[in-house]
Amino acid sequence: MEKSKSRHISCEIETGTCGSGEEGQIEEVQLNLQERVQLIYYTDPICSACWAIEPYLKKFELEYGEYLRIEHKMGGLLPGWKGFADRANGISRPSDVAHHWDEVGQLTGMSIDGDIWVEDPLESSFPPSIAFKAAQRQGEAFAVCFLRRIREQLFLEKKNITKEAVLLEAINDCQGDSGQFLKDYHDPATEQSFHVEKRMRKTYGVRGFPTFIFIGKDGKGYRISGTSGYENYVLALEKAYGKTLTPAPIRVSELALVQTYGLLATKEISTVLSQDAAITYSNLKQLAEEGAVLHVPHKFGDFWKKVAVIA
Length: 311
Fold this sequence. Notes:
There is one protein chain. The protein has helices at residues 48-52, 54-64, 97-108, 116-119, 126-136, 140-156, 164-173, 178-185, 188-199, 201-204, 230-241, 254-261, 266-272, 277-289, and strands at 8-12, 18-21, 26-30, 38-43, 69-74, 208-209, 211-215, 220-225, 263-265, 293-298, 301-306. The chain is built from 14 helices and 11 strands. It has a 5-stranded mixed sheet, with helices on both faces. Strands 2-1-6 form a 3-stranded antiparallel sheet. A 3-stranded antiparallel sheet has the order 9-11-10. The longest helix has 17 residues, at 140-156. By secondary structure, it is of the alpha+beta class. 43% of the residues lie in helices and 17% in strands.
């Protein structure tokens, strides 16, 4: 994450809402001994702040991925609407979330269409969280692909990711085994594993999403809650590692990034390349005119899609 001027955003567990405030701080926590540096990432499929941080997380993985391993954990942002009320933000029903999501989309450059909360509102974030746990049984890389895809479905395409048909679409888009997914998704042990992670939030001191916990070999952890400046993530990693680290150089083009990830926002590409957004957009627009990528405009920003190769 660049030395940004962006505001701190966090999705709170107690209220289930996402808002902005002062920049996240690094907090020291004591955990179990580790053989290597580990990054525990507490998130939720419907967390708008987690979607907003995607550009910086990509950059961080490319520059510092060799120094750590990332473990995704589901935190359970929205159990359900029964008895739920966030009077401070005027939220007592799903339709009240629409404006908040639109604000995050406009603020961060990662488009979000809040109309889903009016047109086809989600009753809970638990089903897609359990679906992620099921996807993990097909491998961590596959589960990460699946998580990204269901977020695209939700934030960009206004699809209700609590529905099994939508989840299966994401499984197929990531070239997974749909039969295996259904078996794992309906396995009580999968749901139990989600609830275990949810209960473990207190152990890690997780108060909202995203929360990143960098754990060093000595078991000492460094926690960042909500979004933060890029330099704070690097600092937390170096504290856990015990020394200054050298980032890997990022020498890729806009086209190569789109081909690697499949679908990226202008914001994601400009952040990864440490490049002005206007220059990035101009380069991508030229690639689209040449037929090398597809331009996919959304409510509050532009995305660029990999061109399918027909055999």
